[in-house]
Structure prediction request, 778 residues.
Amino acid sequence: MKKRKGDSMHTRITLSIVSILFISVLFSCNSTKYIAEGEKLYTGGEVDLKLDTAINPQRKLAFEEHLESLLLPKPNKKALGVPWKLIFWNMGGGYDSSQNLVRNFLKKQGEAPVLLSDVNREYNENLLRNRMENIGFFNASVSSDTIIKGKYASVLYTAIPRKIYRINSLSYSMDSLSAIGRDILSVKEGSLLKKGANYNLDVIISERERIDNLLKNKGYYYFNPDNLLVEVDSTIGNHKVDMYVTIKPETTKQAKQPQRIGNIYVYPNYTLGSQGYTRRSSRNMDLFNNGIYFLDPQNTFRKKVLANHIFFEKGELYNRHDHNQTINHLVNLNTFKFVKNNFENSPDSANTLDVYYYLTPLPKKSLRFEILGKTATVYNGSEANVTWTLRNAFKGAETVTLNVFGGYETQTGGKVNLNSAYYRYGAEVAITWPRLLSPYKWAPSKRFIPKTYLKLGYEFLNRRTAYVLNSSTLNYGYMWKENDQKQHDLTLAEIIYVQPRNISADYQAQMDTVPTLKRIVDPQFSFGPNYTYTFTNSMDQNLKHTFYFKGGINLSGNVLGLIQGASYKKDETRTLFGTVYSQFVRVEGDFRHYMKLGKDAQLASRLMIGTSYSYGNSYSLPYLKQYYSGGPNGLRAFRARAVGPGSSAPENIGADNFFADQTGDYKLELNTEYRSKLAGFLHWAAFVDAGNVWLQRPDVNKPGGQFSKDFITELAVGGGAGLRFDFDFLIIRTDFAMPFRIPYLPKGDRWVFKDIDIRSSKWRRDNLIFNLAIGYPF
Prediction:
């Protein structure tokens, strides 16, 4: 009997699962292959906390996991329960020292077995006891026992913390008549050591660093945290301690004196020699301004530009803020390969530091070549990029880049002409200035370098069986960061010009039947400013809840359209340079929330809202500015640009037809995804996506596409699960998704759970979507 396609896939999946289980069992048996008689393979240590009082189970588990992370040695690394590195080592012949190339290669990829005899239980007991004492459990005790199962062994550590010690009082033993004593006493109100808090060595260390950091900003360059002593008296009883903060008597006199800034010497074209950073002759030094000297006889850089990024001033007290800010600015100019600075005692004044900056430039010119491969369900292609970079182009740390690109994409499956057979080429030239080029004195933040950019681009795209598009773009604007969390991007002028050519007879015939296809090849001309604001605190790993927000507004033709009296309603559209221009206001926002659910689990959610208002010269947004939904980073159960608008059904599905992209003037999308780690680099996720796009005004060719009060009933919904291969430097994502709700079906039939039939090859072909992507979707 002939097998159906679906049966074949089901068989392959079953065989794959059986194969994985078989290999896992085989590897597990092989893991002890070279273990000598009497030895045991060490599988790890476990900590069992015995507490006198009740505690939240999650806190107890977290404390146990923290203690377990301290144990040495670490067992062999595992993935899906299999010690895969040990397997490679075994396949390489284990302890065999032969010169077989294949075996030696396999052995280098693996690791030798970690044995029970490698474990020093007494050392680990002391390690755990010391850690508990460091957080206030002064009377803690630890015992251990070995658990043996065949050729495997683990160690169980039983830890009894007993009662914790708390801070009873905090005193600062300082000489209030000395400058450093007064400065330390002036910052004691912000102490991290609080009365009633647990004794914690980590907090004591942090408090010393806090005081040192504050002193550094008051000029105490030679002071360091080790000069502070926190004495603890635990003999007062009732499980309490008194603390005394003082300066160690052996602290040098120089460390107790604030330092001032002397002369500043800058070597902007420094070549690092074999002897390391050494001071060069200052005979040719040029005094620029206020004690800043430059040694740059070839005038490689404009002195004023570099001086603007040096925040020290001669005669001021040394402070760490200006120190770090100067280094950050010089590094982020993206002009220097190495940035090094030294402080040396001035020969002319006591308690004065001369500052030396050694700046080693990056190569003036560089060339980079990239080739990319692209693949999806029904098409494949590649793209090549050549980027030429010119640094310090105008002696002010400017960067000029020229990118030339070309690529092709061809359809390799499916019965619908997806407009995906094309070739494209083009170029973009960009200039970036590390400052704001503005007639007004505007400095949003001294901590970060603002940038001015100018970009000019051209692209030629030939969809061989459909049309040709010539696209030109120009962007001029500013980027700046307000702080670590907030970034702004103001494009003063964004010009987009798209001109179609060579529309094929086949495409023209279908375009006359399906007017939506005409939108793709309409001439497009938009110009105006846009602004984007980004906020994120997701880099803070200590927060349970973190957020990301990106919002923007895009304008086009607003002022000119009003001046010219443009009105599509009166059939009085206006042109600029002979082309009808777009007139609209477009606003969008992307809000994300991340919630930690444990050490290796997270719930990630996203809300995307896009709205617009087209008027005057425009009936709706131009095609390049319209919203769409679907695809590997949106509604993963639907093909990209295949959802909506509203309850409108997709057009032109069928053999030899061009697919009309489904786009709109409004967008709503909601996503939520549970992410968790399986083992090692292997993670998994389960997700649900919902969303759609809508039109601002009715379209006879898109019935049900206009936004209305019933928009919630027109949401497309899908979900699925997938694996993520997180290699730190690269994340490969695979998702399998299926639709739960299809908006263009009749109202009572839009939820399609009843139609799910995994065993049907036709259902899988029509509904099961596989996405392969790089990185997380949000």
Remarks:
- The chain is about 20% helix and 35% strand.
- Residues 208 and 226 are 8 Å apart (CA to CA).
